[in-house]
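Work Package 4 report. The design task specified in the project plan requires that, given a folded chain encoded as structure tokens, an amino acid be chosen for each position. We show below one input record used in the internal validation round.
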């Protein structure tokens, strides 16, 4: 029943002990020193999480943030150091390539082995076997030992088995990044079918676009702690802005022949704004400053607009537009004006760059700022268009 909690993580923490010994022999010979040199690493810290039936939850964060550890704790593969997890319903987990597979067994034998681990009887596996093999697309290799499989073949077979155990809860960790595009589409289509059937899905991925499209809720983790637990747009925006700030700090530490400062968006009257109605005039402005005493003759200015998922909406620069620029000495303002911006309702980010006509950037600021476009229309997509729709009856 939708709305019923099927997963509850209560004050979950997970500690790993990192030892610096290079071998088992060193650990045995230097047991006392080994214990003294052991370091504790908390992969998760006091995580509270409740997932209701029928929802798709995304876990995002940088490398080492604790996403995969949390998924393994939820799946029962890892035991939390502190706290506990409650689960209701049959669970299938796709956490590591070939997990539960034995390399010396054939694909056929591993289907039965893996299915039994996931809770299917021999008779049920017999019933689903042909469908599993057909979905995997590796019929000609089904009687080959899986140690000879590629990583893509591993995940094809593992995914095919997992979706046929009729899980009420599906845990997925990055495996959709493996395999060719047609197979990825097939996997995504099956997951969407699961969503329509009211199954509960928890997904770990580095693809923010995938998170935005598939999830109705997202948890952002950092250093093992929950930073955001909310809508996909909110979590993705916070993650991107945090990483953009880190980029700005790194860039500020470098010296630039030309430096960007004071980025802003302004309306038709030249007033700074952060929200615009669809189709309004929007100008992107920023200042560029030459290094003390320098005169820069070889330069160009650029701008790029992306949506909240990182999709490029538009990009250009003064070279592409055949704009002649005078040498820069001191500071000057660059302005890109768009008389109409026919984009859909949402948040948009602006990337700025100043660079020579060829070669690496003098200075670039990814996602230097953002602005909001409001539109009452409910049409999906990136562009805000006003089509004239005509329906003509053909003669009989």
């Amino acid at each position: 029943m939708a709305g019923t909690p099927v997963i509850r993580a209560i004050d979950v923490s997970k500690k790993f002990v990192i030892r610096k010994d290079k071998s088992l022999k060193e650990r045995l010979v230097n047991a006392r020193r080994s214990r003294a040199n052991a370091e504790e690493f908390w992969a998760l810290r006091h995580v509270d999480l409740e997932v209701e039936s029928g929802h798709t939850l995304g876990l995002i964060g940088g490398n080492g943030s604790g996403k995969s550890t949390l998924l393994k704790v939820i799946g029962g593969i890892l035991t939390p150091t502190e706290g506990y997890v409650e689960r209701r319903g049959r669970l299938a987990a796709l956490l590591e390539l070939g997990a539960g597979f034995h390399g010396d067994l054939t694909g056929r034998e591993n289907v039965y082995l893996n299915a039994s681990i996931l809770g299917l009887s021999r008779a049920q596996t017999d019933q689903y076997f042909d469908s599993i093999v057909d979905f995997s697309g590796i019929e000609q290799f089904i009687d080959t030992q899986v140690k000879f499989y590629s990583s893509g073949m591993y995940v094809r077979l593992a995914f095919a088995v997992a979706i046929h155990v009729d899980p009420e809860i599906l845990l997925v960790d990055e495996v959709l990044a493996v395999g060719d595009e047609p197979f990825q589409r097939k996997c995504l289509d099956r997951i969407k079918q699961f969503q329509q059937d009211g199954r509960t899905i928890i997904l770990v991925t580095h693809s923010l676009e995938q998170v935005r499209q598939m999830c109705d809720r997202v948890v952002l983790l950092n250093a093992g702690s929950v930073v955001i637990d909310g809508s996909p747009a909110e979590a993705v925006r916070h993650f991107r802005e945090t990483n953009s700030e880190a980029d700005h700090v790194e860039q500020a530490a470098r010296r630039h022949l030309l430096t960007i400062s004071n980025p802003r968006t302004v309306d038709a009257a030249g007033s700074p704004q952060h929200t615009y109605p669809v189709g309004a005039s929007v100008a992107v402005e920023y200042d560029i400053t030459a290094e003390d005493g320098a005169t820069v003759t070889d330069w160009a200015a650029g701008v790029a607009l992306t949506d909240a998922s990182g999709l490029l909406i538009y990009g250009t620069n003064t070279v592409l537009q055949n704009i002649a620029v005078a040498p820069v000495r001191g500071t000057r303002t660059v302005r890109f004006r768009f008389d109409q911006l026919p984009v859909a309702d949402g948040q948009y980010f602006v990337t700025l760059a100043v660079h020579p006509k060829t070669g690496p950037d003098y200075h670039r600021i990814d996602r230097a700022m953002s602005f909001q476009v409001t539109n009452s229309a409910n049409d999906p997509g990136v562009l805000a268009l006003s089509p004239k729709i005509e329906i003509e009856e053909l003669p009989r």
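The chain has a mean pLDDT of 83. Validation will be extended to a larger panel in the next phase.
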